[in-house]
Write a structure and sequence with these properties.
By secondary structure, the chain is an alpha+beta fold. The protein is built from 7 helices and 5 strands; from the N terminus they run ααααααβαββββ. It starts with a helix and ends with a strand. A 3-stranded antiparallel beta sheet has the order 3-5-4, with no helix packed on it. Strands 1-2 form a two-stranded antiparallel ribbon. The longest helix is centred in the middle third of the chain and has 32 residues. A hairpin with a 2-residue loop joins strand 4 and strand 5. It catalyses: 3 Na(+)(out) + phosphate(out) = 3 Na(+)(in) + phosphate(in). GO terms for molecular function: sodium:phosphate symporter activity.
Amino acid sequence: MVQSSSTSSSIIVSMVSSSLLSVKHAIPIIMGANIGTSVTNTIVALMQAGDRNEFRRAFAGATVHDFFNWLSVFVLLPIEVASQYLFYLTSVIVDSFQLESGENAPELLKVITDPFTKLIIQLDKSVISAIATGDESAKNKTLVKVWCKTKTSVTALNMSIPASENCTSSDLCWTSENMTWTVKNLSDTQY
């Protein structure tokens, strides 16, 4: 018996891809796996029964997860039984890729998530490789290469100053009427 919906879903997807199971039959099985995994988080929440406050938080989180799973099945299963909406939708999506047997599957999630992931965090792959090969010096290095990428832009602005002594450079300073002007760089960091 498998209590993980991820494991069950992976097995079902493998069975569909090898034509052991049809997509039409796999849809309710996947929904059942989502309901079945509700047992796991409830058991974990019950393990926190020793501490009343911790139990409340754990059970509340498990209940929210359960409601999400149950509501999605209560809404989608009748629609699927009545109209086979999910079956036809997935068929249209798969057919739009025009895949041939033996071709590599398109990396859909990677295309969508990579630009955003690189803006948030980048890992140093050389450190990962060094740790994997057993390099002792790599154990104390950080895996994070870039955290929340920033972009700094510098703009040259004309600014009025009190007197010519405050000029940033004699070449970049001029007087117009009774005002003295200079060029100053203004840095702006965008996160």
